Amino acid sequence: MPSRPPVHRPAHYQPAAQRREQLASLDARRGSSAARGYGADWQRLRLQVLAEEPLCRFCAEQGRVTAARDVDHIVPIAQRPDLRLERSNLRPLCQPCHSGLTARGDQFR
Ligand SMILES: [Zn+2]
């Protein structure tokens, strides 16, 4: 086997296989998005909701015009998993409204 000249590599260089292994173990810890209950069907519906109602619903009720970023389940999935993909159970919210709602645990506003 011919010897190759030494190759300088940056300190963070990792062989591809090792990198793949690390990514795989990261996925295993976090769970895939499908495993967390957000599969392709949810992604599609989420985009549909945001396309139909691009503005945050809470902000709109208060006369503010804010772009929605999240899609919220009006009745939480934990209570009604069957309504997870029900369009009428979904509302678009901006990130502050959504995180405020989640932080208070008040899902029925
Ligand atoms: Zn809002």
Class computed from helices, strands and strand pairing = mainly alpha
Oligomer: single chain
The helix-strand sequence is HHHEEH
Query: Sheet bearing the most strands, described?
Result: 2 strands, antiparallel
Q: What shape does the CA trace take?
A: elongated
What is the CA-CA span between the terminal residues?
A: 71 Å
- Helical content stands at 25-40%
Strand content of the residues, in percent?
Answer: 5-15%
Strand order, largest beta sheet: 1-2
Give the bound compounds.
zinc ion
The Rg value, from CA coordinates, equals 22 Å
Number of helices: 4
Task: Explain what you see.
The protein has helices at residues 16-30, 40-52, 57-61, 95-104, and strands spanning 70-73, 90-93. The longest helix has 15 residues, at 16-30. The protein is elongated, with a radius of gyration of 22 Å. 39% of the residues lie in helices and 7% in strands. The model has no long low-confidence stretch (mean pLDDT 82). With 109 residues, it is mostly helical. Zinc ion binds at residues 56, 58-59, 66, 93-94, 96-97.
List keywords for this structure.
109 residues; 7% strand
Sequence-ordered SSE layout with sheet pairings:
Layout lengths: L15 H15 L9 H13 L4 H5 L8 E4 L16 E4 L1 H10 L5
Antiparallel strand pairs: 1-2
The structure holds zinc ion (ZN).
The site of zinc ion has 8 residues, from helix 3 and helix 4.
Give the gist of this structure:
Helices cover 39% and strands 7% of the residues. The protein contains 4 helices and 2 strands. The chain has 109 residues and is mainly alpha-helical.
